[in-house]
Amino acid sequence: MAADMRLARLRRWLMGDAPDDGLPARVLDTIRAQQDRSEIMVSVAQLLAIGFFATLYGAAPMAQGQIQPVTLAAAFDLVAGLLGIDLAHVGLAGLRDAADHVEFVFGVLGIYAVVTLLRLILALRRQLTPWMLYASAIIDMALLMAVIWSFHLKYAQTAAFYLKAPTFVYVFIFIALRALRFEARYVLFAGAMGALGWAILLLIVLSGHGGPPNVTHDYTEYLTSNATLIGAEVDKIVAVLLVTSILALAITRARRLLVRAVAERIAAQDLSRFLAPEVADRIRRSELRIAAGEGELRDVTILTTDLRAFSGLSATMAPDSVVKLLQDYQARVCPAIRAAGGSIDKYLGDGILSSFGAAQPSGTDAADALRAADAVAAAVAAWNAERTGQGLPPMRVGMALASGRVIFGAVGDGDRLEYTVIGDAVNRAAKLEKHTKAENVRALCDATTYDRAVSQGYAPPAVRERRAARQVDGVAAPVDLVIITP
What we know:
Radius of gyration: 37 Å
Strand content: 5-15%
Mean pLDDT: 83
Distance between the termini: 81 Å
């Protein structure tokens, strides 16, 4: 029973069915998308390598000592000899004769190019399955070993000759390519196939199918002749397995970091929806840990908006209708504010507090805020036109603006923080918004803010009415007002 469970876990791990630390599906989807891109990179790299080696092999002069050409038919002869079969008896004689017209290395490169191109097409279509990736690793190593095996025929030497071929090092390249996927199982499998392939080549030598193995224990003789030093070949296999194990361990650790990075990035993206983009960017770029009580002085303009008569209206509506109304309102107002450079500080039920020049200092905060107020008024007018067409009553939105120096920083108890603006301009904007009802207008600001906006480049769409020395509740001195929207 325990053995069956272990085998089941091994199967799930090999085939990618095992859970990945209980991660959300969207995190796993992001990681899989990264892996799919990695498979495309691997396929493209392999195609480029094929083109490079084909060009090099065809254009560059061969190493001195080559005696005879080798065709793909040699591979058929080797398999038939090892298995003791008659190719004519199994119906492969015709295929063997056709292969006899194809130069061995170019034939192998051609087969590899076809397989790699198919792999690239499947990768682009996101259709590569685990068994295909395992098959790809087998094909990689098999074709590499076939090329190495052909060297002793090409140079008319005994089979022990190919054991010294420097082409062996390409085993490590194929193993490293598997690492791009950030899954240790494919690295381990590729390494195992590389070690198995070299062991098979060694067994072919020892079997005598390629001539006398000339087994020796003399290292000098091994290096200077076609002798076989079994320990040296075992060292190569051990090196492949050790490098594979180290790389798999590194990939396992790297994958943990990748998973954590992806999860934190997605969490940050989700959290940024609860914060103004400017604030989220500020937090991401902060070199020090954000702490409560840290703040900076900023010259800003505050814009407050309020959905009129919302409390009474919500009392007569179903809860989902109330939320839908707020969503419609905020979906029209907030983009207009952000488009003008504003930062949404907080949602206050049916009210919105936004700031200009706080999260990102600006020399045009007042002008930007006035432009935002004009854009909000236009968005609300379009919204009301839609509502009227649907047989719904129009909504009134009150707005007010005020400028001044505020403190912009983090407040909270340490465990939960909030970036916000604190200062007289915030309070004055709130009081002015309430005062719009007394003035029977939809939007206004104090004359100081308006004149500052004009000096910063704001061009009003029309002449604005000014009302001097108005008494505003909560403000000690009379305030000169400018009516933005009657």
